[in-house]
Amino acid sequence: MRKNSPSHIDTPGILSCVGTLLCWSSAPLFIEYLTGHLDLWTQNLLRYGAACLFWLPVLLMAAKAGRLPKRVWVCALLPFIPNIIMQNLWAAAFYYIDPGFASLLATTAFLWVIILSIIFFTDERRLLKNRQFRLSIILSLVGLAGVMFFHPAFTCSYTIIGIAIMLLYGFIWGLYAVAVKAALKDIDARVGFSVVSIYTIVSLFILILFKGRPSRCLEMPFSGWAAVIVSGIVGIAVGHVLYYISIRRLGSTTPSLVQLAQPFVVVVISYVIFGESLSALQLIFGVVLIAGSALAILSKRTPLPTG
């Protein structure tokens, strides 16, 4: 059988990346809508509950057929820890900043994925020798600083809190991506995420007992429940499974490309729904940020100098 050439394109992997982009672009808008009905702890539990129930039949069928590896319950603990932290940070950010701005800041996760991959995976450490990669880091940091500084409400305390939350979220997301690659690379994506979601649900239930106001669910209109179910299935259940598949097929760095296009998709939709827009300077620095992250992807494919 003829082997694939080095330029072979992994079509399922690329489609998984595109699917992840579409799923995750819708999530911030649903979360923004739900902030008017639920506190962050309650909406997290409800949305993740919908995601957990969506994949639960797959987990049960795998167990019944004897295709559920026992080690998945231990392996899933590694990505679960950063997952529960970043999910709460992600939802909390929308109580302080707009979805488009939050999604733009979330692109910093891509840098952390590369940095942490270099630390934990030997095959990606060679990126440090690449000039394009080092330039990409500089461009991304300059772009990020410009996007934050030229935000109209940057000096407001609530916006600074939102920015801090999203920057921490980016770092935790990097840990999550590396954990998924390390712990679940040879486990069915649906099964792996299903176990992670079970752990997450248990933790969110404990948190809601101390922090949440679940009684507000009784006052939520039908549109709110529809947003919970759709965002849970599309934004969490399907989005994360597609992300797991893309990581398994393409590695932890390349799938993070979805982080680059997402802010612009979110901004366009958010402009129509919520009237949000970014200033010209923010858009310019946003392009610099995304160009830097895109250059980081290209640097991985550029032949390194020998010697």
Describe it for me?
By secondary structure, the protein is an all-alpha fold. The protein has one domain. Helix content is 74%, strand content 0%. It is built from twelve helices and no strands. α4 runs antiparallel to α8. The longest helix has 29 residues. It is globular, with a radius of gyration of 19 Å. It starts with 10 loop residues before the first helix and ends in a 6-residue tail after the last helix. The N terminus and C terminus are likely disordered.
Tell me the layout of helices and strands.
Blueprint: H1 11-34, H2 40-64, H3 72-75, H4 77-93, H5 99-105, H6 108-120, H7 131-149, H8 157-184, H9 189-210, H10 222-250, H11 258-274, H12 280-301
